[in-house]
Design brief:
With about 280 residues, the protein is α/β, with parallel strands linked by helices. The protein is built from eleven helices and four strands; from the N terminus they run αααααααβααβββαα. The longest helix has 30 residues.
Amino acid sequence: MRVWAILAVVAGLGLAQAAGASPAPVPTAGPLPEPSPEKRAEAEQFAVNNTLSALYHEFGHLFIDQFQLPILGHEEDAADAISTLLLLKQNNDQAAEVSYDTVDGYFMSSDLYGEADAGNVDFADEHALDVQRAYEMACLLVGGNPAEFEGLADDVGLGAERIESCGEEYATAQRGWDAMMAAHLRSGGPEGAAINVIYEPAGAIFGEVAALLKGRAVLEQVADTVRRQFVLKSPVTLRAKLCDEENAFYNGEVGEITFCYEYARFYYDLIFDPARLGLEE
């Protein structure tokens, strides 16, 4: 995890409010810059990890829709919690790396959106503020696995009192999740409805990003995780495509989760080419 990025953003934010997570306009993008092998590998992994996290978040929306889960409060917050709980359940090195990079990505995008300036904030947005999403995810992570994530909680400055309460917060979230999903667990039985994975053509500009996601079987990883654990009621299409925006979204009317290639490029550039996004390294 790039702790330098987290600490820099936290120091800059202070006690200021921050903006929501609405997608930013896509900057003009050309072919991926030619990086050093080390920087390219770091940027690619960061893009893959944040794509995985975003897809789990969208499956959170799908679960809420298909299973009519009782959600009090913002659905976006619930989808964030579901994504974090799914990562915690995997309890392996890859899931931990995805979690670290997701928190880091929230802080970096918070800096990009200028969230320390209240004038940049849309307080009516359906998403929580990116900086809030970062802290809440870090809290659930350390509450669910203190041995793995205590260092992260310290690095982002949660504080001992907050860290202690995170254990209770995680227990409450996990208890509610278990109760809501008990009737939908696969438990070794037959698979539920199918998940169809599609990678659409990406064109010359985003072709490398599309090849990265397809080569790493990113969509398939998420689909397999869901199939192993849950019995879906209706078929789902999991589609990667060009969207003209940096986004991922669930459409319940057609039973489809869309991940935009532009979103993966955004995360790639946060590490390798932050100047294109308006950030300083």
